[in-house]
Amino acid sequence: MPTERTVEHPDGRVERITENDPAAAPVVVESRRGGGLGGVVALIIGLALVGLIGWFLINMNRNDAVESNAIAGAADSVGGAAENIGDAARDAVPDRQAPAS
């Protein structure tokens, strides 16, 4: 009379083994793997990581643009201040008049 047994492996495989003679080698009738849920979870995590990296790169570009605009604004402000100082210096010194002959 054949003897049937089921063996579950740590990696999720399930084997059903039928033995016809206890002295004979076992015959594997069916071998199944897990449902594949791990692959779906890995895909979702991978897509989330790609999205997160993209978000950081976009924000980094935005921050660079804001920084560049701030530096340009400061340079314009310094240029305006220098012009004002030049005008004040020019106005503070009286015009020299030609000597009378």
Verbal overview:
- With about 100 residues, the chain is an alpha+beta fold.
- The chain is built from one helix and three strands.
- A three-stranded antiparallel beta sheet has the order 1-2-3, with no helix packed on it.
- The longest helix is centred in the middle third of the chain and has 56 residues, at about 35-90.
- The protein is rod-shaped and about 140 Å long.
Topology:
Layout: E1 3-8, E2 14-19, E3 27-32, H1 37-92
Antiparallel strand pairs: 1-2, 2-3
Helical residue percent band: 55-70%
Whole-number mean pLDDT: 79
Biggest sheet: strand arrangement: 1-2-3
**Helix and strand composition category:** alpha+beta
Number of helices: 1
Radius of gyration from CA coordinates: 41 Å
Low-confidence stretches: none
Range of strand content: 15-25%
Q: How many individual β-strands? A: 3
Q: End-to-end distance, in Å?
A: 143 Å
- SSE order, one letter for each helix or strand: EEEH
The outline comes out as rod-shaped
Most strands sheet: 3 strands, antiparallel
